[in-house]
Amino acid sequence: MSDRELHVDDDWKSRAQAEKEAAAAQPHDEEDMGFPPASIPLLINTLAMQILSALGQIPDQQTGKAMIYKPLAQHLIDMLGVLEEKTKGNLTADETEMLTDVLTQLRILYVQVPDPPGKGSGIQLPPGAKGSGSSIVLP
């Protein structure tokens, strides 16, 4: 056997309890953190806003300039299409109408927005250029 002493930290329980109480005091659910409750309309709106940004309808948060990135817009529109297909018959009438209307408007906008000059590259829209303002109304 060794002559080394075994040191047991008896205070670990009180520190662990204090950490547990501090964690319990932090907000845990979405409502306490200021997030709206998860829902189909919120999911649709979230994806629609990202699509509008990818189509140059909303300025980039980093640069403040409108950029077009159609491959991303197409991917996100396709994701909304998958959502529509996979939830058919399981949404409320309002949710179904919202999803159908938003998808239709976004698909029309996608076709109207000019293709960037380089494949997959973003382009800046000049002020007042066609397509620089969105006519899509999100609920």
Largest sheet, in brief, is: none
Question: What is the H-and-E element order?
Answer: HHHH
What shape does the CA trace take?
Answer: elongated
Rg over CA atoms: 25 Å
Broad structural category: mainly alpha
How many alpha or pi helices? 4
Distance between the termini: 75 Å
Arithmetic mean pLDDT: 80
Q: What is the beta-strand fraction?
A: under 5%
- What is the count of β-strands? 0
Q: Which spans of ≥5 residues are poorly predicted at pLDDT below 50? A: 123-135
Helix content: 40-55%
Overview of this protein structure:
By secondary structure, the protein is mainly α. It has a domain of 69 residues. It has 4 helices and no strands. The radius of gyration is 25 Å and the shape is elongated.
Entry keywords:
139 residues, mainly alpha
Record the SSE blueprint:
Blueprint: H1 12-25, H2 40-54, H3 70-86, H4 93-112
Short précis:
The chain has 139 residues and is mainly alpha-helical. It has helices at residues 12-25, 40-54, 70-86, 93-112.
